[in-house]
Write a structure and sequence with these properties.
Order of helices and strands: HHHHHHHEEEHEHEHHEEHHH
Mean pLDDT: 86
Radius of gyration: 29 Å
Shape: elongated
CATH topology of the largest domain: Nucleotidyltransferase, domain 5
Strand content: 5-15%
Low-confidence stretches: 134-148
Strand order of the largest sheet: 3-2-1-4-5
């Protein structure tokens, strides 16, 4: 409807509106809003103005020209949002630069690519808001106290230098389904506090030697040396095998534990248990020994490359209380790879090797291979 037509309609109903009863005004106002597309408050303001104050220009549709009105932009955002496991808008924006060069589902013009790379997090939120879903699941706690060595392993009291890589938090994730009876697979999950670099290994049961072998294998594959190791009070960690592994070496590793019944002491790894394990493998019961090798094949290849080179995360850098409100400040979303590349504690040779490895990877292909392997695992789980 043109602004001139709206003006003529306005002139026709204005007098009727002022002469009408309250009930009749409501009907006139509803029709005015429906026909002209006005907000109700704006429509009332127009009808109450003097006739000399309103012109066709006042009745034209105002506002900035839409920039991201191309349906393809929303389609691309949705596709990448899905394959990256539905991250928040700030993390998705940071990941677009790494993922767009490999996007082939639709042909993208230079203009569309430019718009996608310059899009704001708030606009991503607006475009994806109808598509978001909330998932709420809770796993089973399987930690059994390992009290024998508590006096030998100190509680961590913020003595680590977490401004450089090498300080790990580690936990086990039980793939037990709804029952702790019998034997089943556990995932040993580790995260570097500084870079958020993660590593996982599957073990059969939660025996001390099996967990030690998994941790030793994780250590051998990390692009940095372990300087500190922190865990909960589970018996799979608080044992002499692990103490000797970390202490009887040329440069001993600082071995610490969390306080009993204080889950937030291990907040970094608890978060990764959900985002890196449960969201992908769920809560089924993995009670077939064949699954150990299948999971380790996945963890050591596609899984590690996908999360460490292409999935961004944010880190809490400041938290302060103002009255009853807690204000948290986070850094910019970055991948673990990006954080390591900025660290002065990583030598240039290692950085070059990481860069060469990243250049051989396609995130969409990694995600496709992960889906295939997870499907094979789930078929064995639920057969």
């Amino acid at each position: 409807m043109s602004s001139q037509a709206k003006y003529e309609y306005y002139l026709e109903i204005r007098g009727k509106y002022h002469r009408a009863s309250k009930k009749e005004k409501k009907v006139i106002l509803d029709n005015f809003c429906d026909i002209c597309g006005y907000n109700r408050t704006y429509a009332i303001t127009l009808l109450n103005k003097g006739i000399e104050q309103v012109s066709p220009k006042n009745l034209s549709r105002r506002g900035r020209k839409a920039i991201y009105d191309d349906a393809l932009i929303e389609t691309v955002l949705f596709d990448i949002w899905q394959v990256t496991n539905m991250p928040c808008s700030k993390r998705l924006k940071a990941m677009l630069a790494d993922w767009l060069p490999f996007y082939t589902s639709h042909a993208l013009s230079d203009d569309i690519r430019k718009k996608l790379l310059s899009i704001s997090a708030a606009t991503i939120d607006r475009l994806l808001s109808p598509l978001r879903r909330v998932y709420k699941k809770k796993g089973m706690a399987t930690t059994k106290p390992g009290s024998l060595l508590k006096k030998h392993i100190p509680v961590k009291t913020n003595q680590w230098n977490e401004q450089e890589p090498g300080f790990l938090e580690t936990d086990t994730v039980a793939h037990c389904g709804t029952s702790m009876a019998g034997m089943f697979v556990f995932t040993v999950n580790s995260v570097d506090i500084y870079s958020q670099w993660t590593a996982q290994r599957a073990v059969w049961g939660k025996g001390e030697k099996g967990v030690l072998e998994a941790i030793a294998d994780i250590e051998s594959q990390l692009p940095f040396a372990i300087k500190g190791f922190d865990c909960d009070n589970g018996s799979e960690f608080l044992n002499w095998h692990l103490v000797r592994h970390f202490q009887e070496r040329k440069e001993p590793v600082q071995f610490t534990r969390s306080r009993a019944y204080h889950k937030n002491d291990n907040a970094h790894i608890e978060n990764k248990n959900w985002t890196h394990i449960r969201q992908y493998l769920g809560y089924g019961r993995f009670d077939n020994p064949q699954l150990v090798d299948m999971l380790n094949d996945l963890y050591q290849h596609e899984w590690s490359d996908y999360f460490n080179f292409f999935i961004c995360s944010v880190k809490l850098i400041e938290k302060k209380r103002v009255g009853a409100k807690v204000i948290k400040v986070y850094d910019k979303p970055q991948t673990p790879f990006q954080r390591l590349m900025k660290s002065n504690a990583i030598d240039e040779q290692t950085k070059q090797e990481l860069q060469r490895e990243k250049e051989t990877l396609n995130p969409f292909e990694l995600q496709r291979q992960m889906k295939k392997k997870i499907k094979d695992i789930m078929e064995l789980v639920y057969q």
